[in-house]
Amino acid sequence: MDKVVATAAEAVADVPEGASLAVGGFGLSGVPNVLIGALYERGVSGLSVVSNNCGAMETGLAVLLAAGRIARVTGSYIGANKEFARQYLAGELEVELIPQGTLAERLRAGGAGIPAFYTPAGVGTQVADGGLPWRYDGQGGVALASPPKEVREFDGTEYVLERGIRTDFALVRAAKGDRHGNLVFNKSTRNFNPLAAMAGRVTIAEVEELVEPGQIDPDAVHLPGIFVQRVVALTPEQTGDKKIEQRTVSS
Q1: Each residue of 154-180: pLDDT tens digit?
Q2: What is the helix (H) or strand (E) element at residue 171, kind and residue range?
Q3: Who's near 250: CB < 8 A, 6+ residues apart?
Q4: Is residue 1 a contact partner of residue 151, using CB atoms and an 8 Å limit?
Q5: Which is nearest to 172 in space by CA: 13, 24, 9?
Q6: Alpha carbons 176 and 209: distance in angstroms, whole number
Q7: Predicted structure pTM score
Q8: Distances (CA, A) of 159 to 96, 113, 238
Q9: What SMART domains does this protein map onto (predicted)?
Q10: DSSP letters of 70-114?
Q11: Is residue 6 exposed (0-12), middle (13-18) or buried (19+ Cβ within 10 Å)?
Q12: In whole angstroms, how far apart are CA 95 and each of 33, 114, 116, 133, 155?
C-alpha cells in the first residue's frame, strides 16, 4: 500500500511518447510544477494534455509547451499565454476548447466510470453545432474543426451530449498526502486537482507534506487514495517555490 516514490524523475519514468495527461492547477495555483519539470527533463513529446489552462508566466505546462513537447490541448482558457496563441494560430498545436464547467464534469465523469452525460452548456453554439477550430493551417484557414454533437431535449430544454475524459496519466499537487495516496488540498489549490486525479489511469501526486497513514482525519480527505498510484514528497525548497501571477499591494 506504500505508494511513495523516491523522486519525481522515477515517478514519471514510464510516461511514453504521445501519452495523454490530465494536469491539475488553475493559473499558478496548485500546479504540479515538480512533476512537469521531471517530465521535461525526460524529453518525451507528442503529449496530449487535458488541463484548464496551459501554464502561465513560463511555468507549469508552459515549460513543455515552449519546448514543443505538446501536440494537443484540451482546456478552457488560453488567456495571456502568447506562445500558446502563436502555436495554435500557426497550426502547430491542436486545441479543443471546452466550457470550464463542462471540462470539470468530463474529468469527473471519466473518473467515476460515466462514459457520457448531457449538459445545457454550449447548446446553440459551435460547442454543440460543431465548427470550432481545433487546428489552423497556418495561413488563417481552419485545417480541422470540431464535429457536431448530439443534442437531445429533456422536459422542454435542450442538452448536448459530452463524453467523459480518461487519460493515460494524471499529474496533481496536494498540500498533504499519506503513503496510501489520500490527499488534502489547500483552499484554491483544490481547483481541478481532484478531477484530474480521478481521470488518470495512473495518477502521480506531488505533496508538500507527507504523513503516515492514519494521520489524516478520514473526514478531511479531499481525494481518496484509490485514485492515486504514486506519491512524491517535495523538499522544503520545492514546496516554497510559489510564484504570484498578479501582485497587488496597497499604496
Answers
A1: 999 999 999 999 999 999 999 999 999
A2: strand 167-178
A3: none
A4: no
A5: 24
A6: 5
A7: 0.94
A8: 19, 20, 44
A9: CoA_trans (SM00882)
A10: EEEEEESB-TT-HHHHHHHHTTSSEEEE--HHHHHHHHHHHHTT-
A11: exposed
A12: 22, 24, 21, 8, 33
d(CA 163, CA 114): 8
Instruction: Name residue, grid cell 484509490.
Output: 226
Which amino acid would we find at residue 129?
D
- Helix ranges, the chain (H): 8-11, 33-42, 61-66, 82-89, 100-111, 126-129, 193-199, 236-240
Question: Which of these, 74, 65, 54, lies nearest to 166 by C-alpha position?
Answer: 74
Phi, psi of 226 (to 5 degrees): -60, -25
93-136 residue pLDDT tens: 999 999 999 999 999 999 999 999 999 999 999 999 999 999 99
Contact 245, 56 (CB under 8 A): yes
Q: Which three cell numbers stand for residue 239?
A: 514546496
- Maximum distance among all Cα pairs of the chain, rounded to whole angstroms: 58
